[in-house]
Amino acid sequence: MGYVINRLLQGLMVIAVMAVLVFIGVYAIGNPVDMLISPEADQAEIQATIVRMGLDKPLWEQFLAFINGALHGDLGTSFLYNEPAVRLILERFPATLELALAAILMAILVGIPLGVIAGLKPNGIVGRAIMTISILGFSLPTFWVGMMLIMIFAVNIGWLPSTGRGETASLFGVQWSFLTGDGLAHLILPAINLALFKTSLVIRLARAGTREVISQDYIKFARAKGLSEPRVILVHMMKNMMIPVVTVLGLEFGSVVAFAVVTETVFSWPGIGKLLISSIVHLDRPVIVAYLMLTVMLFVTINFLVDLIYALLDPRVRRKESA
Amino acid sequence: MSDVRGGAAQPTLVVEGLKTHFFTEAGVVKSVDGVDLSVSRGEILGLVGESGSGKSVTGFSILGLIDQPGRIVGGSVKLNGEELTTASPKRLRSLRGDRIAMIFQDPMMTLNPVLKIETQMIETLQAHIKIGHAEARARARDALGRVGIPSPEERLDSYPHQFSGGMRQRVAIAIALLHGPDLIIADEPTTALDVTIQAQILSEVQTLCRETGTALIWITHDLAIISGLADRVAVMYAGRIVETGAIAEVVSNPRHPYTYGLIGSVPSRNKRGQRLTQIPGMTPSFLSLPQGCAFAPRCPNADAKCLEMPELSPCPSAAHRARCFHPMPEGAEA
Ligand SMILES: Nc1ncnc2c1ncn2[C@@H]1O[C@H](COP(=O)(O)OP(=O)(O)O)[C@@H](O)[C@H]1O
Ligand code: SF4
Ligand SMILES: [Mg+2]
Question: Tell me, what's the ipTM?
Answer without folding.
Answer: 0.89
